[in-house]
Amino acid sequence: MNGGRPRVSLRDYVPSTAAARTFAFTSFVSSVGTGLFLAGSAVFFVRSVGLSTTEVGLALTLSALVGLVATVPVGALTDQWSAPRVLAGLQLWRIAWLVALAFTTGPVPFTIVASALAVADGATPPVIQAVVASVSGPGDRPRTRAIIQTVRNLGFSAGALLAAPLLAADSTWTFRLLMLGYAALVVPSVALLLRMSPPQRIHAVRPGLLRGVREFRDWRYGLLTLLNGVLCLHVTLLSVGLPLWALRTGSVPVGLVPLLTFINTVLVVILQVPLSRRVSDPGGPARVLRTSGVFLAACCLLLALVANTPPLAASTLLLLGCVLLTLGELSQSIGGWELSHQHAPEGRHGTYLAVFGLSLSGQRIAGPALVTGVVIAAGPWGWVGLAALFALAAGLTRPSVRAVERHRLRQTPPTELPEPAPGHRETRDGREAREDRETREQREQREDRDRAGQPVARPGQLGKAEPVGPEGTDGTARPAEHDPHGRHSQYDQRSQHDQRSPHV
Predict the structure, then answer these.
(1) What is the C-alpha separation between 481 and 477, in angstroms, rounded?
(2) Virtual CA dihedral for 369, 372, 378, 381, nearest 10 degrees?
(3) Which pLDDT score is estimated for 327?
(4) Confidence band of 109 (pLDDT split at 50, 70, 90)
(5) Rounded to whole angstroms, what are the CA distances from 136 to 22, 124, 131, 198, 238?
(6) How far is CA 33 from CA 39, 120, 124, 457, in A?
(7) % residues pLDDT > 90 (the chain)
(8) Among 141, 30, 147, residue whose Cα is nearest residue 87
(9) CB–CB of 468/455 below 8 Å?
(10) How far is 166 from 164, CA to CA, in rounded Å?
(11) In whole angstroms, what is the distance from residue 420 CA to residue 305 CA?
(12) For every residue of 29-85, which 3-state class applies, written as one string?
């Protein structure tokens, strides 16, 4: 034991079910293709498709909007069909449009193809969440998800390395091979996804796809999604914020910029699985998500100090900021994912996870403009302002999660309420919501009894009504309960008083 927690071993990086191990392998293979694409896409868009940087930016912005709109309807398909099959369908869609992209030229065709690919890009994250939940063993969801994220990061790195010689060749066909190679690496994942047999199957209510999307009215879950979207800005900070800020200040050597991505990748691979254990405790997911805001705020404050600092000190601050950014990324990823799944109603996981996925899609659209046009443009004070935004999101996380928990408990029938796990005490929010619901139901039962003369349940015994008054359930007189001193019990006295007063 280390600090009250078991040490991490290599076995912790192996999923507990055969279906989860299969999915981990498919995730690695397809992520190698993603790494190929990410490493060479920008060069491909300019050299092969023939676009200017302005045309690339406009097309990607429009396609991101299409992906944002499609996220919830496509993600909600997992409420109708099994998540592995939906993901296989998305991958087939991706393969077809990647082949088309390899031979696309001109801004208009590129915008159309990029928008089609954005449909798959926007819906894939929530569908992957649903697949992980369906293939995980009992109580093993956070660890399985952490393993999937780890192997995906390894795949991204491997793909980026494979892209280097193709980019060095600098020809149209080698650029096309990047896209075709990505499509080829996705094909095995489709075959394996179609053969997967998840150990857990969620029997959905199946209200109808469009009806299920239209009926989403949970503003509390929406608020949690918004806060998670603020914390998701770490994605833009790593890819855009840190490199551009390092170049603008002039205090950091340019050769240090690629090292930031390397440090981030290594830390994610090493820490993802160990940190996933922090969400296993009661209240752990909310606490981890709140910690993400603290890490990101501290990162921004360090970046504010980089300006007007000697090169050695500026480089040290930037590296420390990258470490804090990575810790914030891990905390947001682990805490946000677990919260999104915990509070998704049974039978509507696909819709709710897709709504939560809007936080990432939204930051992809608003994040670059916010970081470049506001934060970096404002200089050090811009980073201070962003730190305040992260701190605000961290402070609002706990009240938001409490609101979601109370709403969920109030909407859950008493017979379906889970009891606290052995060895864990019930959280204060859960206890208050349970007591509030019991009080309300007791009051409703009493009002119905007063109108129709029906029996009422004793406190703490919902659904187990006892007859009140001097007669039993068979109409015969029943003796009053007495204590050892011959007095009526408190319950009988209250029951008799209730019979006399019609206003109780």
Answers:
(1) 12
(2) 100
(3) 95
(4) very high
(5) 11, 18, 9, 8, 30
(6) 10, 15, 15, 62
(7) 20
(8) 30
(9) yes
(10) 6
(11) 47
(12) HHHHHHHHHHHHHHHHHHHCCCCCHHHHHHHHHHHHHHHHHHHHHHHHHHHCCCHHH
Residue count (the chain): 504
Q: Is the pLDDT score of 2 beyond 60?
A: no
Confidence band, pLDDT 50/70/90 cuts, at residue 101: very high
Q: What is the chain's Cα-based Rg?
A: 28
Percentage above 70 pLDDT, the chain: 73
**How far is it, in rounded angstroms, from Cα 362 to Cα 72?**
12
- HSE value, Cβ hemisphere, 13 Å, CA-based, for 371: 23
What proportions of the chain, in percent to the nearest 5, are helix, strand and coil?
75, 0, 25
Is 38 within 8 Å of 162 (Cβ atoms)? no
Could you write out the DSSP letters of every residue in 222-251? HHHHHHHHHHTTHHHIIIIIHHHHHHHHS-
Question: CB–CB of 287/394 below 8 Å?
Answer: no
What confidence score (pLDDT) does residue 197 get? 58
What is the DSSP-derived secondary structure letter of residue 282? T
Structure tokens at 479: 């003796």
Question: Cα 45 to the chain's mean position, in Å?
Answer: 31
Q: Specify the residue for token string 């926007």.
A: 122
**Can you say whether the dihedral through the CA atoms of 33, 35, 36, 37 is positive or negative?**
positive
- Write the CA distances from 244 to 229, 238, 304, integer angstroms: 22, 10, 13
Question: Measured between alpha carbons, how far is residue 31 from residues 155, 180, 244, 326, 410 in Å?
Answer: 5, 14, 26, 20, 41
- The pair of three-digit structure tokens given for residue 420, joined into one six-digit string: 């606290």
Q: Is 96 exposed, middle or buried (0-12, 13-18, 19+ CB in 10 A)?
A: middle
DSSP category for residue 136: S
Lowest mean pLDDT segment, chosen from 116-130, 132-146, 167-181, 310-324:
132-146
User: Which whole-number Å values give the CA distances from 446 to 169, 441, 504, in the listed order?
Assistant: 81, 9, 8
CA separation for the pair 171, 186 (Å, rounded): 24
Does the reported pTM lie above 0.85? no
Contacts of residue 5, defined as CB under 8 A and 6 or more positions apart, other chains included, come to 277
Lowest average pLDDT, out of 394-398, 440-444, 465-469, goes to: 465-469
* Spatial distance between the Cα atoms of 372 and 376, rounded to a whole number of angstroms: 5
- The residues near 214 (Cβ < 8 Å, ≥ 6 apart) are none
Q: What is the mean pLDDT of residues 143-149?
A: 85
Tokens of 51: 């676009």
